[in-house]
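Dear Dr. K.,

Following up on our conversation at the group meeting, I've run the structure prediction for USP domain-containing protein from Gossypium aridum. I'm pasting the input sequence below exactly as I used it, so you can double-check it against your construct before we proceed with anything downstream. Let me know if the numbering doesn't match what you have in your notebook.
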Amino acid sequence: MHVVFLLGLHICRFSREQLEQLDKNKQWSRALDGSDYLPGMVGLNNIQKTDFVNVTIQSLMRVTPLRNFFLIPENYQHCRSQLVHRFGELTRKIWHARNFKGQVSPHEFLQAVMKASKKRFRIGVQCEPVEFMSWLLNTLHADLRTSKKSSSIIHKCFQGELEVVKETQSKAISEKKESDGEQNGALKITDGQIENNNVAAETYRMPFLMLGLDLPEPPLFKDVMEKNIIPQVPLFNILKKFDGEMVTTTVRPPARMRYRVTKLPQYLILHMRRFTKNNFFREKNPTLVNFPVKNLELKDYIPLPAPTKENEKLRTKYDLIANVVHDGKPDEGFYRVFVQRKSEELWYEMQDLHVSETLPQMVALSEAYMQIYEQQQ
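The predicted structure tokens came back this morning:
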């Protein structure tokens, strides 16, 4: 039996023609064990508190160029990284039309993750999907690129650019320089320092793979009537952090920061900062974010630079393709994800092995934690 499965895996090859048909396929498949499943919409085993990995994988499987790249092993045969090859293998299993059974175990991939992350992410220990997503994308990128300057499929899909204006008190400047070093791999493209009234302003550009959004503090006091009201905020309000005007203050080192998006990626990952840690415990902000599932128009809220090439069109409209949600208390909760199936524009809710169709309205009613938006072409 084991041999058949390995053979099945070996045979699992995708041609370029098949890739083009993947998002048009409406056919259900029948697994060898008799269960029916939709290729690309298969449940993943939760091996032990590995739901944070499962929701990340299911989200990334909706990113068409990334998925297509990993479905063809020749694309990364030069690469020696076990993580890259196990990720490719898992991608092929999820999208395979003739699976052994209608669910997939990410066990080999998890082993590669534990090794590559030096046990930072491991079976049996709950982690935040955003930390895992960030680590996974950065590691895959580093493993795939052939030289320091070369790009990878990761950067082609997710990399955007920010202009950062940082204002610090003059005496803090020298200390800041020491501590700033290579933080976040910032690209210091323009390094203009202007001093004014003991305040030094520094402007530079840095790449990003995701944007972190701050939720407003939930109200501390509730009267009797308002007990059950959960605070809500429109996505556009929290996106203003990146309009180049809004000031974000940092405590260590003390600085006033302004951010402006100068280049949008093809796939935009947003992370709502729901959890805060203090000395005693983790807290969760329950604020609901109201967001559009279709036609998120960014240029209405973030001033974007005009395209550099002539005839180039500024693409600023996005559609949601994945929405990771956290349910429950900060330390005991669990993650699930809503993903869109392109062939029929239907939404599915996925939580480990559980996969069910859902309404688009349900997607928007959840405690969104991390989202992937696709740029309209």
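Two things stood out to me. The longest strand covers residues 317-327. Residues 129-144 form the longest helix (16 residues).

Best regards,
J.T.
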